[in-house]
Design brief:
Layout (H helix, E strand, L loop, with lengths): L21 E3 L2 E3 L5 E5 L6 E6 L3 H15 L2 H4 L3 H17 L1 H12 L3 H23 L14 E9 L2 E5 L5 H14 L3 E5 L6 H13 L6 E3 L4 H9 L5 E5 L2 H13 L4 E5 L4 E5 L5 H13 L9 E7 L3 H13 L19 H16 L3 E4 L14 E4 L6 H4 L6 E7 L5 H8 L7 E5 L3 H10 L4 E4 L18 E2 L4 H7 L1 E9 L3
Parallel strand pairs: 6-7, 6-9, 7-8, 9-10, 11-12, 11-16, 12-15, 14-15, 16-17
Antiparallel strand pairs: 1-2, 3-4, 5-19, 10-18, 13-14
This protein binds nicotinamide-adenine-dinucleotide.
């Protein structure tokens, strides 16, 4: 047992189970509000207890982050020194990659290959990418029309950042936020999802090992009420949140009612996939299977509503159904698993309820449709055809391996298709499958979404912006866009005349 750290037991036999601790001002402290259990979604068994932060803990974490912001051991670091800390954290993630991957799979359920190659590798790369940015964040000198006046801009850290993450890719989404926050000289209070807190606890341990000074990286665990405390906190300058649109609305209200803290919101999605008459169907089947079932469909950019040229419908539906039936379902820890469990019993109920609605509203269930008997939170990959635009399964975010197929009739009526594809409150991602450059351009230009993928599954990359139109969010993560999110631009005017 590492008493100085988060008391991270992770023992299958549950011996020595002690709640994970909070990390405040460089200390691992026992949460004031007791603890709650977290489960292995592949078995339904309790694997750890997580400390429950109270308002006093949140206040202490925010105060520590505020104090660290101006302290010489952080604010006084040279850019190369700050960069070195981020490079070191990237290396530590890689040194501990297998342990982190196993932990993510155990807590979140994702297949171990996804944990290794997406969650853990992606997190390390993110820290390395933003380590590179530290020495390249520039201001400008501007040609203002005043005599004998030097005008320049500089970027300053926005301040204390609350980072609230969801349960689908806990480690990777935390890296998306923490890496640019630290690269730009900010301090952070992390609040992971109560469903999947473990890799966030471990990442903070590694940040301590990397040498970030006390108070720079703080961690408070707990449920949505802890997130709400951060949203309403008058001393948080910026809150970066990834999660549901419903919670995004609550956070926006809390920000408005407190200090109008800046918000970056990465919210829900319901990505359309258009399969044109001329699509390469083999590529479309492979890409849409990957795009709809990665992490059991628990992906905000997952392809979920399919607009298929009526002439290709039968072929598309039968080949997709065959592909879905062929997926190896099992615990994420099993190397051969392609489709792991859903994250929680509650989420399994949510997916099951929406699937029932699909059948009740008259869609045709082609394959799947049921939870699996036995332990764990498994749901069959499911495909509906004959879906109409008003059905719940094509309108609501399901966040599971559930696909809804509808058709369109006339290639010349792309404008009508665009109206249907855009008939959603969401606008995170979309995909188009065609070999015709004009069709791909018209659809890529016409679909209102933050990312349009042509003939490929939805993938994030730290060099490309990630974020949504409409109710899918505000702002962009990744690339230079995240530097914008975590900095203020100061305008400095210097009159040097007599
Ligand atoms: P959620 O909204 O239930 O929870 C997300 C986080 O918000 C958790 O840490 C939770 O504790 C916290 N929270 C809950 N209530 C809160 C409140 N009132 N104030 C502040 N924080 C609060 O979301 P989830 O179910 O964990 O995640 C799934 C959702 O996340 C889906 O809608 C999905 O589309 C979205 N998502 C979006 C992206 C993206 O990049 N746009 C990426 C991944 C997931």
């Amino acid at each position: 047992m590492k008493a100085a750290q988060a008391t991270f037991t992770n023992h299958p036999d549950m011996e020595d189970l002690m709640p994970t601790r909070l990390h405040i001002n460089g200390e691992w402290t026992t949460a004031s509000g007791g603890a709650f259990e977290t489960f292995d979604p592949a078995t339904g068994q309790v694997i750890e207890e997580i400390g429950r932060a109270t308002a006093a803990d949140v206040d202490a974490a925010v105060a520590a982050a505020r104090e660290a912001l101006g302290r010489p051991d952080w604010a006084g670091l040279l850019p190369i020194q700050r960069a070195a800390l981020l490079f070191r954290l990237a290396a530590l993630i890689e040194d501990n990659a297998e342990e982190l991957a196993a932990l993510e799979t155990r807590d979140q359920g994702q297949p171990i290959g996804i944990s290794r190659h997406v969650s853990v590798a992606g997190s390390a790369e993110h820290f390395r990418y933003y380590a590179g940015w530290v020495t390249k964040i520039q201001g400008t000198v501007n040609p203002v029309s005043f005599p004998e006046t030097l005008h320049y801009t500089k970027r300053e850290p926005v301040g204390v950042n609350a980072l609230i993450t969801p349960w689908n890719f806990p480690l990777m989404i935390l890296a998306w936020k923490l890496a640019p926050a630290l690269a730009t000289g900010n301090t952070a209070v992390i609040k992971p999802s109560e469903v999947t807190s473990l890799t966030s606890v471990r990442l903070v341990e590694l940040a301590v090992e990397a040498g970030f000074p006390p108070g720079v990286v703080n961690l408070v665990t707990g449920d949505g009420s802890v997130g709400a405390m951060l949203s309403a906190h008058p001393d948080v300058d910026h809150l970066s949140y990834t999660g549901s649109t419903a919670t995004g609305r609550l956070i926006t209200r809390a920000s408005a009612d407190s200090n109008l803290k800046r918000l970056t919101l990465e919210l829900g999605g319901k990505a359309p996939s258009v399969i044109a008459r001329d699509a390469n169907l083999s590529a479309a089947i492979a890409g849409n299977l990957a795009g709809s079932t990665l992490n059991s469909g628990q992906v905000c950019a997952a392809y979920t509503r399919f607009y298929v040229d009526a002439a290709r419908e039968d072929e598309f539906v039968s080949r997709m159904a065959e592909g879905l039936r062929g997926l190896a379902i099992g615990p994420g820890a099993q190397e051969s698993t392609q489709l792991g469990p859903l994250v929680s019993a509650r989420h399994l109920d949510h997916v099951e309820a929406l699937v029932s609605t699909g059948s009740e509203q008259g869609a045709t269930l082609v394959t799947g449709g049921h939870r699996l008997d036995g332990e764990g939170f498994f749901f069959e990959p499911t495909l509906f055809s004959g879906v109409t635009d008003s059905m719940s399964i094509i309108r609501e975010e399901i966040f599971g391996p559930v696909l809804a197929v509808t058709t369109y009739d006339d290639l010349d009526e792309l404008d009508d298709l665009l109206v249907r594809a855009n008939d959603t409150e969401y606008g995170l991602a979309a995909t188009v499958w065609t070999q015709d450059i004009s069709t791909s351009q018209r659809l890529a230009n016409g679909i209102r979404a933050g990312a349009v993928f042509v003939n490929m599954p939805p993938i994030p990359d730290m060099a490309a912006p990630w974020g949504g139109y409409k109710a899918s969010g505000w702002g962009r993560e990744m690339g230079p866009w995240a530097i914008d999110a975590y900095t203020e631009i100061k305008s400095v005017w210097m009159h040097y005349g007599a």
